[in-house]
Amino acid sequence: MKLELRGITKRFGSLTANDAISITIEPGEIHALLGENGAGKSTLMNVLFGLYQADEGQILLDDVPVAFSGPGDAMRAGVGMVHQHFMLIPVFTVAENVMLGHEPTRFGGALDLPEARKRVREISARFGFDLDPDALVEDLPVGIQQRVEIIKALSRDAKVLVLDEPTAVLTPQETDELMTIMKQLAAAGTSIVFITHKLREVQAVANRITIIRLGRVVGSAEPTASSQELASLMVGREVDLTVDKKPLEAGADSFVVTDLTHFDVNGVTLLDDVSFTIRKGEILAIAGVQGNGQTELTEAILGLRHRVKGSITLNGRELLGSTPRHILESGVGYVPEDRKKDGLVGEFTIAENLMLDRSFAGPFTNRLSVDFGHRDDFARSAIGEFDIRTPGPTTAAGRLSGGNQQKVVLARELSRDLALFIASQPTRGVDVGSIEFIHERIVSVRDSGVPVLIVSTELDEVLALADRIAVMYRGRIIDIVPANTPRAKLGQLMAGVAS
C-alpha cells in the first residue's frame, strides 16, 4: 500500500510540532524517519494513526484521501503501529493480547480463542517468529514481546506498519533479528515507516531516509550516506562522531562498591550482590537493557534508596547510610537519568538551577542570604563555558531545549571539586551536536584523574566512552569486560548469557 502525507501541520498552542511535512512511502519500502528526540517524528506518526488530528494537510492511501478519527479507523484502513512503549497486558497470553480490541466470536458471542491461537500460529510461521500463543507476555523477553506487537498489527491486515523507536529496549542480537523481520515484511509487500535516531540502524535497513529537524523535513538521503552526512543533516552543522581519549592512566581504586543489595517494600530483590571498583582516571560504563537495576544502582549510591545493604566507599570513606546531601558534599557529581524530574526545577531560572545542592554555604550564600552577584556571575560564566543556548541566566530552565537543559545539569555538577562523577543516560534526548559536547566533557573529567561511572542503554555510547564495561542483568552485574569487547559478546551478556 502506498502512503502519502501531504503538508501535515500539527500545533500545540504556540508550538508547531509538525510544519508542512510531506513524505511518500512506496509499497514494500522501508522508509526511515531520522531525527533527534523532539524533532516531531512521533507526533507525525500519531497524526497518521489517528491519535492526533492534523491542523492542516492530507493523508492518502493508494492515492485516496483518508481521515482517521482514532486508531480504530487507521487499523481498519490497513495502518498498524508498534509504539516505543509496548501496549501489551502482561498477565494475558500472546493470543489474548493479539485478539484484544477485535475479538473473534463464536455463536452466542463467546470469544473464539482457538481462532486467535490459529491466527498467531499462521503469522508466526509465515515470518519465522516462533511464538507460543499460550505463553504469558510477562514471561517473554522484550524482543519477543515486540514480535507480539508486530503480530497484533499484522493480524488486522496492516499494509502499512509504523515502528516507533523499535530498538530502544533491545539487545544488539534482538535488534539484528528485528532488522531481518523488517526486511521480510517489506519483501512481502508491507510498507514500513521506521522511526529512529540511531544512524547505524538506518544505514543497515532503510531503502530511503527522510531527515526531520525541529518539525520540518530538512532533507532526504540514501542509506549509503555516511554517518557524518546524516548527523550533519540532523543538527544543521558538521559533527565529529568520534570520541578522542588519551590512553588510560588509571590510578588506585578510588570508588568501591561491595555486595550491594537492595529490596523493595515487598522484599523483592532489585539489586543482588553488586560489586565493582573504579580507579582514579577511569570510566566504568554500566551497559544493559533498561530496567535491569541501573536506576536502582545509581540511586542507591546517592542515598536515595532505602533497604540497602553492603558497602559503598569513596577514597576509603563509607557512604552507605549517609544522606544525599552528605554524599554530594563528599565530592560526588550526579547527572540523573531524568533531567526534568530529578535534575532541574523547570520553573526556576538557569542561575537558580546552577546553585541547587550548593545553597547551604559559600560561595553562593553569605550567612542566611543569597549572594546574587556571585550567583549571576557564575551563571553567565557557565553559560559561556558549556555553550548553553539561552537569552540569559534569568531564562526558566524548562524553556530550554533538551540538550541545553542537560548542559545546565552538567555545568552545575562539573563546576565543583569532584571525587566521583556519575552520569546516568547522559545524552538521552539530546541532539547529535550536544552529544559531541557532552562526551568531550565526560572524557575531560576522566583525564583529570576523577573516577567516572556512566550508565547508558546506548551501546555505541558505552563503547565510545568506557575503559571497562560492566553488564547488568536482572539486578546483577554478570560480567565486567574490556572496552574492546565485541558487540555480539556484549549483546549476549545483556541477554543474560554469562561468560
Sum up the structure in keywords.
ABC_transporter-like_CS; six-stranded mixed beta sheet; ABC transporter ATP-binding protein; 499 residues; Rossmann fold; alpha/beta; 33% helix; translocase; 17 helices; single chain; transport; cell membrane; 3 domains
What does this structure look like?
The protein is of the alpha/beta class. It has three domains: about 5-235, P-loop containing nucleotide triphosphate hydrolases (Rossmann fold), CATH 3.40.50.300; about 240-330 and about 415-499, 3-Layer(aba) Sandwich (Rossmann fold), CATH 3.40.50.300; about 345-415, no CATH class. It contains 17 helices and 22 strands. Helix 14 (about 400-415) packs parallel to helix 15 (about 430-445). It starts with a strand and ends in a 5-residue tail after the last helix. It is found in: Cell membrane. InterPro entries: AAA+_ATPase (IPR003593), ABC_carbohydrate_import_ATPase (IPR050107), ABC_transporter-like_ATP-bd (IPR003439), ABC_transporter-like_CS (IPR017871), P-loop_NTPase (IPR027417). It holds the Pfam family ABC_tran.
